[in-house]
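Let us practice reading a record.
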Amino acid sequence: MDLSRTIIPKSDQINFEDVQTTPITAVIKSVREGTRDQPVFIDLVGYDGRPYKPSKSMRRVLIGGWGNNGHDWVGKSLTIIGDPSVKFGGVAVGGIKVYAMSDIESDFSMMLSVSRGKRSEHRVKKLLTNQMMLADFTSKLNEMSPEHFEKSYQWLKNKFSGDDENLEKLEVVYKSHKSDMENT
């Protein structure tokens, strides 16, 4: 019996508790104007009605990676994680940080304020989307041994579970290359 649904916080937004033990990786569905206190609402696919409301520091990170036009962020993916060391009013309450972003050239870091006069480095990893992983797999087919090809295929097949479009493309690539290997 899966009890994970019984501990989901009742809230109108994604909270620290949602990502405290399990990161969220999702595609951005929309970016919209929020309130005075939380000026940006990022709607994620699969989290209808519960937007991610990034802190000022995380907005700086997102702008650093994707630019300042929020509408350009739609369709891109990010991974957010819980960081228990985030403080509010001098007390560690936990917060949400951007861990990885798609559509960036490479990993990057930024110096962010953590308290008055104190800054800390925040690192962001390049997020490989299913489409990017499929393209990478396809580009390296001729370099792989048959055993590596099979292992990579099985790993991607598991990774793409629920992504019917990329799973279908993977199957086409797999069958084609397998046929090519058998005919050589």
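A brief commentary: The longest helix spans residues 164-182.
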